[in-house]
C-alpha cells in the first residue's frame, strides 16, 4: 500500500544499526528571551507507533515538535533519526529526511489544485521541461487510492473542507516517503465522522511502520489512537508510558503535578453585588450558552485549554465580536454591547491576550499608548486634548505602576514586555473601570513584573472592581481567583470555589 | 535612539524629560542642501544667484501650493495606513463644477445664464461640497466594504476625471468673476496653503482627531479595542482629504481664471511624493504636516532649480522619480536601523 517495499528497502538496507527507535531526542534545551521553553527533554518514537505528547498550555509540546520538524534549532541536545545523529536545519531539510509535519493551520495554497499542492517543487516534467499535468494527476490518484482518500486531484484547495485539506497534507507527507509524521491537534476542527476516517488512515500508516507524533488535549483520543504517550510540564520531561497502562486520572496528575511555589498577594476582600451578569451568551460556532456573574471585588478566573473559547467569551463581552445570542447585564440592567466603544462607555476595560497584535501601538510613545482609551470624553475639550493635564495624569499612573522607561516619549516598542504590559494596564486604569477583563495578563513577562501585576489586580479588587482573569497558568488562576469558571470546547464545564479548587479538579473539567 | 530599558533605569515621570528633536529636522537639512546645490550650480552655469531672487522664490512656492494643499490631506490618509489616488481627479472635477457657478454675466457662453455674477462664496461652497462628497464615497467604501484604499480611490480617480470631462463635454469653463479669481491671484494660493497647513498641523498634534488618526495607523486592532470607532474615523479622514482636494481645485481654477477637464492630472502622485519625502511612512502611523510642507517645498525647489539651470524637462522627470524612490529607501533603512 504505502510502498513499504521502497521505503523499508531503502531504509532497512542502509547502515542503520537496527535501531529500536525511529526518532530520538535527548537532552534537548531551547530558551527564548525570558523563558526556557524546553529543559533537558527527551523523547523516543518507536517505529509503527502513535506517540502522543501531552501537557498543559506552555508545557513545551509545541516547541519540541517544532524542533523535531526543523522549524527551531535546539540550543543543546541530540536528535537521532534511525540511529544516526542528525541536525535539522529547516523544515525542508526535515521533510527530505522523512520527517513531515501536519500543521494546525494548514499550509496549502488555496488557489492551486490538490495535485499541484502535493507535488510542488517536484512536479513531473515532460521532455520540453513543462509540467506534465497528466502524469501528476495519475500520481496523485494512485497516492489517494493507497491512502483510501476520496478527493479529486484537480479540485482547487480552497473548495475543500478542513478535513479534506488535512487529508491532502497527509498525502503530501506520505508522498515524501516520510516515516515520521507530526500531527498538531489534527482533530480540533473535524466532525466525529471525519475523525473516524482520520484514525483509519493513521492506523493504516502505523501498520506500515510509520511513526506518528500526535499532539492532543483530548483524553479520549489518547486512549483510542495512541500506543504511548509522553507528558511534559513547564518545559520539562515528566515521563513516557504505554497508554494501556494508565488511567485518565494518572495522566492528569502527571500533567498538573506542578508545585505552587509562587506566593500570590491574594487578599480576602468583602465581595459586593453582582456587577456583570452574562446569560446564555453564544457566539455561533465558537462558544455556547455561557452564563456567569461577577461581583464587585471578586476575581473570577477563567480556565481552560487554548481553543476552549475563553478569550472569545472575553472578546464578545467587550464587543469586539458581538454575541449571536444571550444577554449581558451590568448592575442589573441589560446592555447591548455592540463595540468596544460601548463597552468602555459602560466602564469596562479589556487587557487583550496579544500585547503586540491588539494592545500596543508599537511605533508610538508611552504617553500616546497610555492615553488612547481615555480620549473618548475625559481630557478632551471641544476636540482638543488637554495635553498638560493628561500627561500629568499619565506620568502619575506610570509612576504608580512603576513603568521603567527613560521618559514618557520613549517608543513603547523599546520597553520590555513587562513594562509594555504595565503601560497597557495604565491605559485601562485611566478609564476608571468597574469591570476589568484581563486575558493572560502575565504571559511572557519576567517574574518581578508578574508579581507587581498580581499586586495591582488585588488592589483593584479591593477597590471594588469586578475582575475576570483568563490565564493558562493554573497556579495563577488558583492563586488569584475567588471563583473559577472552567471551559472546554466552547462550553462552561463547571465552577469551582477558591476553597475547593485544585489543579486536578480544574484539569478534569478542562480536558474531559 | 535605541534605548534598551533595563531594570536599572529610573521610573518615568520626571518633568525635565523632553521630546527628542523633531524628525523633520533631517528633511529640512535636505531642503537646505538641495537649495545650496542649485545656488552653487547657478553661479557656475548661469552666472547668477538661485536664491537671491525674490520673484523666483515666490514662483517656487506658488507653483507647488496646490500640490501642498492636496498633500496635507493625503498625509493624513497615509498616516491611517491608507492611500488616496483620487485627489488629482477631484481637483479637476471641483475646478470644473465650481467654475460653472463663478462665471460673470459679461462672458459670452455661460453655463447657467440665470446663475451669473454670484458671490464667490457660492462657487467656493459648491467646490468644497463636491470634494467632501468624493471623500465621503472614498471613506465609506474603504471603511464599510473593506476594499483596499488603493482600489476605492483608483475608482474615484477614474470616475472623477470622467465627471470633469462629461460636465462640459470637454469644453473649458471661462469668464470667471474677479471676486472668485481673487483667491488664485498673487500669493493668495500660498496663504491658503500655509493656513491649511497650520490648521491641520494643530489638528494632528493637539486634537483627538489627530490622536485617533495616528492610533489607527499604528495598530488598527488595538485602536478598535481602545474604543475608537475606526470606521467613522476613517470616513472623517477621507472627507478631509476630499475637501482639501476640492479646495485645491477652487484655487487652481481661480488662479488660471478658467477651468479645464485636464486640471490636476498626476497631482495625486506629486502629493504622495511630497508626503513621503517629508517623512510620512506608507506603513502608517508616522507623518507630520511640517514634514509634508518641507517635502512640498523640495518639489518646488527642484522644479525651479532645473528650470533655472535649463535642464531638459525629460531629465527633470527622471531625476524627480529617482529622488522620490531615494526618499522611501532612506525611510525603510531608517526603520530597519531602529528595530535592530
Automatic annotation (TrEMBL), chain A:
What EC number(s) are associated with this protein in UniProt? 7.5.2.11
What this chain does, per the entry, is described as: Part of an ABC transporter complex involved in carbohydrate import. Could be involved in ribose, galactose and/or methyl galactoside import. Responsible for energy coupling to the transport system.
This protein's name: Ribose/galactose/methyl galactoside import ATP-binding protein
Question: Keyword Nucleotide-binding, does the record have it?
Answer: yes
Single GO MF descriptor: ATP binding
Its predominant location is membrane
Question: Pfam families annotated for this entry?
Answer: ABC_tran
Q: Which reaction does it catalyse?
A: D-galactose(out) + ATP + H2O = D-galactose(in) + ADP + phosphate + H(+)
CDD domains documented for this protein: ABC_Carb_Monos_I (cd03216), ABC_Carb_Monos_II (cd03215)
Q: Which PANTHER family match?
A: CARBOHYDRATE TRANSPORT ATP-BINDING PROTEIN MG119-RELATED (PTHR43790), GALACTOSE_METHYL GALACTOSIDE IMPORT ATP-BINDING PROTEIN MGLA (PTHR43790:SF7)
| EC supergroup of this enzyme | translocase
Q: Which PROSITE patterns match?
A: ABC_TRANSPORTER_1 (PS00211), ABC_TRANSPORTER_2 (PS50893)
The alphabetized UniProt keywords are:
ATP-binding, Cell inner membrane, Cell membrane, Membrane, Nucleotide-binding, Repeat, Sugar transport, Translocase, Transport
Q: How does it sit in the membrane?
A: Peripheral membrane protein
Q: Which family does it belong to?
A: Belongs to the ABC transporter superfamily.
Q: Where does it localize?
A: Cell inner membrane; Cell membrane
List where this protein forms a coiled coil.
Answer: none
Q: The ABC transporter domain covers which part of the protein?
A: 23-259, 269-508
Source organism, top-level taxon: Bacteria
Indicate yes or no for the key word Transport: yes
GO annotation terms (biological process): monosaccharide transmembrane transport
Q: Name one GO cellular component term.
A: plasma membrane
- Organism from which the protein derives: Shinella granuli
Automatic annotation (TrEMBL), chain B:
GO molecular function annotation: transmembrane transporter activity
GO CC list: plasma membrane
| InterPro entries listed in its UniProt record | ABC_transp_permease
Q: Does the keyword Nucleotide-binding apply?
A: no
Give the location in the cell: Cell membrane
Q: Which UniProt keywords apply?
A: Cell inner membrane, Cell membrane, Membrane, Transmembrane, Transmembrane helix, Transport
Q: How does it sit in the membrane?
A: Multi-pass membrane protein
Task: Give TM regions.
Answer: 25-45, 57-79, 85-108, 120-144, 150-168, 180-204, 235-253, 289-309
Q: Does the keyword Transport apply?
A: yes
Q: What is this protein called?
A: Monosaccharide ABC transporter membrane protein (CUT2 family)
Amino acid at each position: 500500500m504505502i510502498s513499504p517495499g521502497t521505503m523499508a528497502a531503502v531504509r532497512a538496507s542502509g547502515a542503520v544499526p537496527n535501531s529500536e527507535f525511529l526518532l530520538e531526542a535527548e537532552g534537548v534545551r531551547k530558551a527564548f528571551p525570558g523563558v526556557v521553553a524546553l529543559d533537558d527533554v527527551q523523547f523516543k518514537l518507536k517505529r509503527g507507533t502513535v506517540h502522543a505528547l501531552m501537557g498543559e498550555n506552555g508545557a513545551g509540546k509545541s516547541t519540541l515538535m517544532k524542533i523535531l520538524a526543523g522549524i527551531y534549532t535546539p540550543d543543546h541536545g541530540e536528535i537521532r533519526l534511525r540511529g544516526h545523529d542528525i541536525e535539522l536545519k529547516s523544515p525542508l531539510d526535515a521533510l527530505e529526511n522523512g520527517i513531515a509535519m501536519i500543521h494546525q493551520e494548514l499550509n496549502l495554497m488555496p488557489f492551486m489544485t490538490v495535485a499541484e499542492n502535493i507535488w510542488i517543487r517536484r512536479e513531473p516534467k515532460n521532455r520540453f521541461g513543462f509540467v506534465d499535468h497528466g502524469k501528476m494527476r495519475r500520481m496523485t490518484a494512485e497516492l489517494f487510492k493507497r491512502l483510501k482518500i476520496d478527493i479529486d486531484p484537480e479540485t482547487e484547495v480552497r473548495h475543500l473542507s478542513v478535513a479534506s485539506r488535512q487529508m491532502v497534507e497527509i498525502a503530501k507527507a506520505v508522498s515524501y516517503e516520510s516515516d515520521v509524521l507530526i500531527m498538531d491537534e489534527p482533530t480540533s476542527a473535524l466532525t466525529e465522522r471525519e475523525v473516524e476516517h482520520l484514525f483509519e488512515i493513521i492506523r493504516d500508516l502505523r501498520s506500515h511502520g510509520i511513526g506518528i507524533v500526535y499532539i492532543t488535549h483530548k483524553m479520549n483520543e489518547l486512549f483510542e489512537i495512541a500506543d504511548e504517550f509522553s507528558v511534559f510540564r513547564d518545559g520539562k520531561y515528566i515521563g513516557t508510558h504505554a497508554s494501556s497502562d494508565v488511567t485518565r486520572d494518572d495522566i492528569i496528575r502527571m500533567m498538573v503535578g506542578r508545585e505552587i511555589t509562587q506566593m500570590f498577594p491574594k487578599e480576602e476582600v468583602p465581595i459586593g453585588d453582582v456587577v456583570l451578569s452574562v446569560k446564555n451568551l453564544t457566539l455561533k460556532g465558537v462558544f455556547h450558552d455561557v452564563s456567569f456573574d461577577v461581583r464587585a471585588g471578586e476575581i473570577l478566573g477563567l480556565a481552560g485549554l487554548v481553543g476552549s473559547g475563553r478569550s472569545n467569551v472575553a472578546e464578545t463581552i467587550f464587543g469586539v465580536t458581538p454575541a449571536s445570542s444571550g444577554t449581558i447585564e451590568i448592575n442589573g440592567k441589560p446592555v447591548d454591547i455592540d463595540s468596544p466603544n460601548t463597552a468602555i462607555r459602560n466602564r469596562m476595560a479589556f487587557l487583550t491576550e496579544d500585547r503586540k497584535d491588539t494592545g500596543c501601538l508599537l511605533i508610538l510613545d508611552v504617553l500616546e499608548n497610555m492615553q488612547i482609551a481615555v480620549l473618548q470624553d475625559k481630557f478632551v475639550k471641544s476636540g482638543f486634548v488637554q495635553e498638560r493635564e493628561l500627561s500629568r495624569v499619565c506620568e502619575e499612573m506610570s509612576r504608580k505602576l512603576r513603568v521603567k522607561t527613560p521618559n514618557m516619549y520613549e517608543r513603547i516598542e523599546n520597553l520590555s514586555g513587562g513594562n509594555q504590559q504595565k503601560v497597557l494596564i495604565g491605559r485601562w486604569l485611566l478609564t476608571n473601570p468597574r469591570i476589568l477583563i484581563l486575558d493572560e495578563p502575565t504571559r511572557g513577562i519576567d517574574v518581578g513584573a508578574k508579581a507587581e501585576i498580581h499586586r495591582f489586580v488585588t488592589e483593584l479588587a479591593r477597590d471594588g472592581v469586578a475582575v475576570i482573569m483568563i490565564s493558562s497558568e493554573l497556579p495563577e488562576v488558583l492563586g488569584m481567583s475567588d471563583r473559577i469558571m472552567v471551559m472546554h470546547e466552547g462550553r462552561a464545564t463547571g465552577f469551582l470555589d477558591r476553597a475547593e479548587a485544585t489543579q486536578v479538579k480544574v484539569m478534569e473539567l478542562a480536558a474531559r | 535612539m535605541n534605548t534598551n530599558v533595563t531594570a536599572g533605569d529610573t521610573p518615568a515621570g520626571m518633568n525635565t524629560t523632553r521630546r527628542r528633536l523633531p524628525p523633520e529636522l533631517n528633511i529640512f537639512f535636505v531642503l537646505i542642501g538641495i537649495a545650496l546645490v542649485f545656488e552653487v550650480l547657478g553661479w557656475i552655469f548661469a552666472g547668477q544667484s538661485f536664491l537671491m531672487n525674490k520673484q523666483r522664490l515666490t514662483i517656487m512656492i506658488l507653483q507647488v501650493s496646490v500640490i501642498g494643499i492636496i498633500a496635507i490631506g493625503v498625509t493624513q490618509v497615509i498616516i491611517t495606513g491608507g492611500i488616496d489616488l483620487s485627489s488629482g481627479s477631484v481637483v479637476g472635477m471641483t475646478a470644473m463644477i465650481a467654475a460653472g457657478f463663478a462665471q460673470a454675466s459679461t462672458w459670452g457662453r455661460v453655463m447657467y445664464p440665470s446663475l451669473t455674477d454670484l458671490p464667490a462664496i457660492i462657487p467656493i461652497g459648491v467646490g468644497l461640497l463636491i470634494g467632501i462628497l468624493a471623500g465621503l464615497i472614498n471613506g465609506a467604501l474603504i471603511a464599510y466594504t473593506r476594499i483596499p484604499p488603493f482600489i476605492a480611490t483608483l475608482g474615484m480617480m477614474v470616475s472623477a476625471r470622467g465627471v470633469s470631462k462629461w460636465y462640459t463635454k470637454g469644453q473649458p469653463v471661462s469668464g470667471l468673476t474677479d471676486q472668485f479669481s481673487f483667491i488664485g491671484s498673487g500669493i493668495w494660493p500660498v496663504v491658503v496653503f500655509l493656513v491649511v497647513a497650520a490648521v491641520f498641523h494643530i489638528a494632528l498634534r493637539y486634537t483627538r482627531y489627530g490622536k485617533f488618526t495616528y492610533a489607527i495607523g499604528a495598530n488598527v486592532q488595538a485602536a478598535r479595542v481602545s474604543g475608537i470607532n475606526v470606521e467613522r474615523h476613517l470616513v472623517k479622514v477621507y472627507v478631509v482629504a476630499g475637501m482639501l482636494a476640492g479646495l485645491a481645485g477652487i484655487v487652481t481654477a481661480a488662479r488660471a481664471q478658467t477651468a479645464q477637464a485636464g486640471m490636476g492630472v498626476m497631482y495625486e502622485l506629486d502629493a504622495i511624493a511630497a508626503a513621503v519625502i517629508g517623512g510620512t511612512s506608507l506603513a502608517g502611523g508616522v507623518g507630520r504636516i511640517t514634514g509634508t510642507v518641507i517635502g512640498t517645498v523640495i518639489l518646488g525647489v527642484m522644479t525651479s532649480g532645473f528650470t533655472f539651470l535649463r535642464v531638459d524637462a525629460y531629465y527633470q522627470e527622471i531625476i524627480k522619480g529617482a529622488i522620490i524612490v531615494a526618499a522611501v529607501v532612506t525611510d525603510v533603512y531608517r526603520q530597519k536601523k531602529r528595530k535592530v
